[in-house]
Amino acid sequence: MRYVEEFRDPKAAKGLLAAIDRVVDEIGATAENPVYIMEICGGHTHAIFRYGLDKLTPAGVEFIHGPGCPVCVLPMARVDECVELAEQEDVIFTTFGDAMRVPGTKKSLLQAKADGADIRMVYSPLDALELARRNPEREVIFFGLGFETTTPSTALSIQQAAREGLTNFTVFCNHITVPPPIKALLDDPHMVLDGFVGPGHVSMVIGTHPYDFIADDYGKPIVVAGFEPLDLLQSVLMVLEQIRDGRAVVENQYARVVPEHGNPVSLAAIEDVYEKRPSFAWRGLGEIDESGLRIREKYAAFDAEAKFGIGYGAEVERSVEEPEGCACSQVMTGRIKPTGCPQFGLGCTPEMPLGALMVSSEGACAAYYQYGGGRAAVEAAE
Amino acid sequence: MCLGIPGQIVEITDESRLMAMADVSGVRREVSIAPVLGAGMTPGDLIGEYALIHVGFAMAIIDEQEAAETLKALEGLGEAQETLEAMAEGAKALEERA
Amino acid sequence: MKDVTGQKVLRDSRVTLAHGGGGKAMRDLIESVFTDVFEPDGMEDQARLTAEALAVPGARLAMTTDSFVVTPVEFPGGDIGKLAVCGTVNDLAVGGATPLYLSAAFIIEEGTEIALLRRIVATMRDEADKAGVRIVTGDTKVVGRGSADQVFITTTGVGVIAPGVELKAGNVRPGDVAIVNGVLGDHGACILAARGDMALSSDLVSDCAGLGHLMAAVQAACPNVRAARDCTRGGLASALNEIAEAAGVAVEIEEDALPLRAEVKGTCEILGLDPLYLANEGRLVLFVPEDEAEAALAAMRSVPEGEGATVIGRAKPAPAGQVTMRTLFGGARIVDMLVGEQLPRIC
């Protein structure tokens, strides 16, 4: 078994789709009165569009694309700070490719690189660590970005740097966590969601219990899902069955990867290296309590905020207003579809993104635009 | 978010730093096995296992039995659908004959 | 001074600014490294060409130019010289021209190893011979360290289009069949690994190849071949979008018909890339009327560069300008033009 092709079998997909059709009928959901299911994770959004799942599922199911794309929810101010860090003398600024094109108020990292900053794309924080070892006279800064899936890799890299006594490696920590924004969405009075497809790879780190509040306190079903098309369809079916049966529990479709209690080594590394920030700003969602992580005092030597006096570690609080006319927060809470935003495809395109959800290919608006015929629709309208 | 893909651990490359070579469809990349090295295990125990790889770290060992159970349930649904479709075809054929 | 093989000996092992100075050092470099291999007729500042094919009434001259930069300059399956010859030969061939002559201009960075230049020039001669073209004129310039990355090459090609031949994207009509000549994305994935910054390794080899013979075989077998495009930067997706737009047709491809090696899929899974946008240097997509599809496939498979030829989809009447892909289990998605460059992603 290679755990990929097996979960893309068209025959099984047919069975799943037929079962989804039946349950949607049993619920009585229709195009006018659909069941709203949020896939929290941007990876799921990407897979839904890549495999055309939104076009295969019945009209009675409507996907709402959640906030789980760390690049999309990154405030512009943080990008500005990245550029500021990267443009210092003797700095090698390292980042995942995802963050390169995200616009700041002045420029993106890609533009800063063109202006002469030494910015390098890496696949892993371990590669940034290796750059630090090989360039002892340079300061290597890694842009720590992502949810709980990615958080442990940065923590383990910091621990490794500490063991080796590296003095030229720091992390600009912008790690964020999944449960707080979900709570914020559920507390939104305009919220229409009936259930959730939960983020599989976040859950392989944190386990399934951090979602208990969704079922217990808010009475909504959530099914932790894998990323292959059959995983997603099966998870949608499981959410629908819960809705039909009037149940609300946390279920785990992705048991081959997600242990109930997560990954102990990763959780210990997270606990050792980070602490919660009192609050953190999300692009499109605003400040959310205890939704971001910062590096603990004992690892201050590896904390770019402490070393360079920037970001949430700085004295001055920076806030940058979201661009006018941007309706990302309404899209994210399911009030409107991406195409319902007045800026979609006009003032906001993947080439020149205005709002968070157009920034990364995992953002709902970018996915609509790229895979869903956004460009064609806009051109036809012109 | 969080792109993760299954890769097979094929070789331990640095025992002290817990690094191993992972193979994804014939593409190899060195990864850290720190997260998946359980208590009482040695790195060599992981050779041959499939792990979920994310940004250069093996984040979970894929549970073959759980995977098989998921697939079995999926196959069941696929077969049930085929049976239903065959029955519908049959009924249609009967109607046409009548 | 010449060595026993008759090759001129250069004192230096690396290119210096003196080699670009216009004096004796430059002449030695040009003679020793370039003209001894390319063997142009005489040493005038121009090539004087005879092209009998052009004398046929209705025949047209085709001309194209392309610059080549690649990191690293040598990679599994080729080097920048092979790219420079094949790329320009292919630009002529997919337009229905028979490639005849090339020019080659080199921007060389100070400090570049002369042995490397020799290897590149040798591959260029080899590829030119294989393609049946001659490199008839050229130029070299030397720039200071850091002003170029070892060597940049610009090649210009001329060829002849026989009377009545008219291959262009605008010819494609609904119902036409789309065929590629082999597995996709090998070059792009190979270069990604060869760059080393993602620390990936695989046995992938670039697909870089000249496609002149393949196009000649197809044109001989299919009188009504509509259009061909080489799937270079931007990959198959960009080539198909250009064709759909120019012809005012829709193009629909089948995901399960796309030929992709496991290693290319693996590279794409690891880095979150889409193989439809990976660069190829020896792959083209061809549109032929349905009744000529079998003949086209057979003709392509008769040459080594077309062994993997396969049908991937077809043109449809609407929506005009749009490329869609039927996914593995019947879903559909739009395959748009690429926005900017494909960057590796983690999320």
From TrEMBL, chain A:
Belongs to the HypD family. The lineage of its organism: Bacteria, Pseudomonadati, Pseudomonadota, Alphaproteobacteria, Rhodobacterales. This is Hydrogenase maturation factor. It comes from the Bacteria. It holds the Pfam family HypD. It comes from Maritimibacter dapengensis. PANTHER family: HYDROGENASE MATURATION FACTOR HYPD, HYDROGENASE PROTEIN ASSEMBLY PROTEIN HYPD. InterPro entries: Hyd_form_HypD (IPR002780).
TrEMBL record, chain B:
The gene is hypC. Pfam families: HupF_HypC (PF01455). Transmembrane segments: none annotated. Signal peptide: none annotated. PANTHER family: HYDROGENASE MATURATION FACTOR HYBG (PTHR35177:SF2). Belongs to the HupF/HypC family. InterPro entries: Hydgase_assmbl_chp_CS, Hydrogenase_HupF/HypC. NCBIfam families: hypC_hupF. This is HypC/HybG/HupF family hydrogenase formation chaperone.
TrEMBL record, chain C:
Residues 56-161 form the PurM-like N-terminal domain. Residues 173-324 form the PurM-like C-terminal domain. It holds the Pfam family AIRS. It comes from the Bacteria. Belongs to the HypE family. This is Hydrogenase expression/formation protein HypE. It comes from Maritimibacter dapengensis.
